[in-house]
Amino acid sequence: MDLNYSPEEQAFRDEVRAWLNANLPADLKEKVASYAHLSREDLLRWHRILAKKGWVAPGWPKEWGGTGWNVVQRYIFEEELGYVGAPPLIPFGLTMCAAVLLRFGTEAQKKRFLPRIYNGDDFWCQGYSEPGSGSDLASLKTKAVRNGDSYLVTGQKIWTTLAHYADWIFCLVRTDPSGEKRQEGISFILMDMKSPGVTVRPLILMDGAHEVNEVFFDEVKVPADQLVHEEGKGWTVAKYLLGHERLNTGRIGGSKRELAALKEYAKDRKDARFRDRLARLEIELMALEITNLRFLDRMRRTGQPPGADVSMLKIKGTEIQQGLTELALQAADPAASDELSVALQKRYMSMRKTTIYAGSNEIQRNIIAKMTLGL
Amino acid sequence: MNFDYNEEQQLLADSVRRFLQKDYDFEKRKQIVASPQGASDQVWGTFAQMGLTSLPLSPDYGGFGGGAVDLMGVLEAFGEALVVEPYVPTLLGALLVAKGGSAAQKQAILPAVAEGRIKLAFAHTEAGARFDLSHVKATLEKGEKKAVLGAPQADKLVVSTTSGVYLVDKKDVEVKAHRTIDDRAAGDVIFRKMKAEQLQGGLELVEEAVDFATALACAEAVGAMKYACDATLEYLKTRKQFGVPIGTFQALQHRIVDMYIAQEQARSMACLACSKVDSSENADDRKRSVSAAKIKIGDNARHISQEAVQLHGGMGMSEELKISHTFRRLTLLAQLYGDADHHLERFSSL
Asked: Residue A166, exposed/middle/buried by CB under 10 A (0-12, 13-18, 19+)?
């Protein structure tokens, strides 16, 4: 047992950190540190800086632009991205759609979409949840009817993150409403957001931010060559994506940075109650980091995807992220009206989403109960 | 980076676990606990044969130079089986001798420990000290130490006083024996004009040795947690109410999932504590890691033990079932060498 990174891994971390510090634009770093709004252009600007360096999609196969790093190097890279305080890399294209195309896409689909994702030419969003289908995703009703060389898609998606920035959306749709097994009637399609019949309506959350949307489809024509995998195999695709290797679901780097900032912010607070809360959260994060590294080490040795382990990292990681915002709120002067204090209040509200999105933490517990514990 | 036990560590842990499953099942343990001595010499002899008493000692004294990480798997197995023999107290005493003893003292004590011929205990805590290791009022003239784990079975004790740390024969002190809540033998140690040999070192020596024992207690707790989680999962799968296994109820599924998550988090921190006591180059780094681990293990021991009893229903309260004894062990381990509040103080002060 050795909890330390090897000298080579440490050198890799130093290299990544030095490059990030030298190349992350100061204005973007400041926006992230102060929890300011990040525009589409902000997100894409950072994406393109990484693309130019060749680091925007480390996990992809080398032929499509991947770096060839092993899982530990990729984890270190992601941790450093979080730790330096870079704008997030929006995962819908880079990690989700790309993973699906690499696994199930045709050569033509890969050639058409992957380079544009890599270079930040297309901004993607994810069309999963519907008004009646949240945790019970397989009950989704948005229908796609085959009509010659295309599908006509009608229905509604909801909570669609950054749909108002997006050029493309990948969607789960129902191609066969008659099936006995409802999972078998679902297909995975790619849709141009500029298609006639697509309407995006903002949903404003309690922090006042426009981040998520409703997306309406009214007989939207989607060419049949934008179906991924076979018709009726959409659920297989969705499940693949769920168990797809995700290395930093716990968001360790970002939480480390926020913890350090919080300690600095609250350094004049001397009361023991606050100090103990902070210490317990720090220790929770230490434990999660080691747990994450244990899973990573196992992945490296066995070559197996992490499976339900990801659910544990998601649960603990989001609880810690929320805990940090609670403490930041508590550390702020209750009467403060400065920009940072207001941003921290909004951040506290905004981060309540983390235990709901990407499979609520209750759904994650269901997954662990079933997959790991056999219940 | 590597979180696995190496082949030797794994083989040792496996053979200890096999021995305990065969010769230290719950019924056998009950008999040992019910015996006047409250521990088995035969079992101790087997531990010695397996190398457990020599593993962490220096090769100069018949040992193998092992560390806490080498013992982690062993302590996990002890935690699963709820071993009552005074293993960690003996190692704690041996470590104090190894770090503070003269060559002659080491030669007199350590080979005998390695061969399983003698057991040790560390008499340190006094009334009112709580978990403060610096709280020592005893002198050679007069002193009383409280609830010393392993004291009734020890042949020699290491005793702290205001003038330093001493090695003493048990016959030169009085031991008032009692049992801990988890059925281990302990005793109050009382002495007057004690004839004793001094070891070199003071508070720093004590802190280092107790941190080592704390790391081992963390590993032991992880083993007890594993049993608690596994037994509870099995119960959820077999106990039927309303015509179905109660493990089909989501309210219970989520609770046992949280127990397993707590166990994984605790295991991670036990890895940290054990590797830091072995390899840390500065004392503050070691203390900070051990305290962090003990806080997490204390919190999670309480969480898991309480939930294990709750999910077992009335059966969880019963003396007959091992789960209630695991509850007691986890309750004791959460307190041993400092509870979460004590370690929060130390963690935050570093």
From this structure: buried
| Residue B56 tokens, joined | 């962490």
Please check whether residue A368 touches B, CB under 8 A.
yes
Q: Do A1 and B268 touch (CB under 8 A)?
A: no
Shortest CA distance to B278 belongs to which of B74, B66, B94?
Answer: B66
A162 in B contact zone (CB under 8 Å): no
**Strand duo B164-169 + A150-157: pairing:** unpaired
Query: Which of B69, B237, B254 lies nearest to residue A365, judging by beta carbons?
Result: B254
- Cβ distance A2 to B1 less than 8 Å, yes or no, reads yes
Phi, psi of B173 (to 5 degrees): -130, 165
B285 at the A interface (CB within 8 A)?
A: no
Alpha helices by DSSP H, listed for A54-93, are 71-84, 91
Contacting residues of B for A316, CB less than 8 Å apart: 261, 265
pLDDT of residue A300: 87
Instruction: Give which of B300, B297, B302, B277 is closest to B287, Cα–Cα.
Output: B277
Nearest CB to B261; choose among A1, A72, A312: A312
A372 and B CB contact within 8 Å = yes
Distance CA A240, CA A97 (A): 11
**In the predicted model, what is the mean pLDDT of residues A17-25?**
98
- Residue-wise burial string across A36-48, b where 16 or more C-beta atoms lie within 10 A, e elsewhere: eebeeebbbbbbe
User: Given the DSSP bridges, would you call strands B156-161 and B120-123 parallel, antiparallel or unpaired?
Assistant: parallel
CA distance B254 to chain A (A): 6
Largest Cα–Cα separation, chain A: 71
Neighbouring-strand partners of residue A2:
B2
Cβ–Cβ of B257/A365 closer than 8 Å?
Answer: yes
Identify whether the C-beta of residue B81 lies closer than 8 Å to the C-beta of residue B29: yes
B8 touching chain A per CB within 8 A: no
Q: Mind telling me how many Å the CA of B23 is from chain A's nearest CA?
A: 29
CA-to-CA separations, B5 to A64, B81, B181, in angstroms, rounded: 38, 20, 32
For B294-325, b/e burial (b = at least 16 CB within 10 A) is bbbbbbbbbbbbbbbbebbeeebeeeebbbbb
Under 8 Å between Cβ of B159 and B143: yes
Burial level of A159, CB count in 10 A (0-12/13-18/19+)? buried
A95 band by pLDDT with thresholds 50, 70 and 90: very high
Q: Is A288 on the interface with B (CB under 8 A)?
A: yes
Tens-digit pLDDT profile for residues B236-265 = 999 999 999 999 999 999 999 999 999 999
Length of chain B: 350
The per-residue pLDDT for A306 is 78
Chain A interface, best mutation among B261, B286, B299, B345, by max A CB count within 10 A: B261
pLDDT, one tens digit per residue, over B160-203 is 999 999 999 999 999 999 999 999 999 999 999 999 999 999 99
Determine what percent of chain A falls in helix, strand and coil, rounding each to the nearest 5. 55, 15, 30
Stated length of chain A = 375
Residues of A designated catalytic: 245
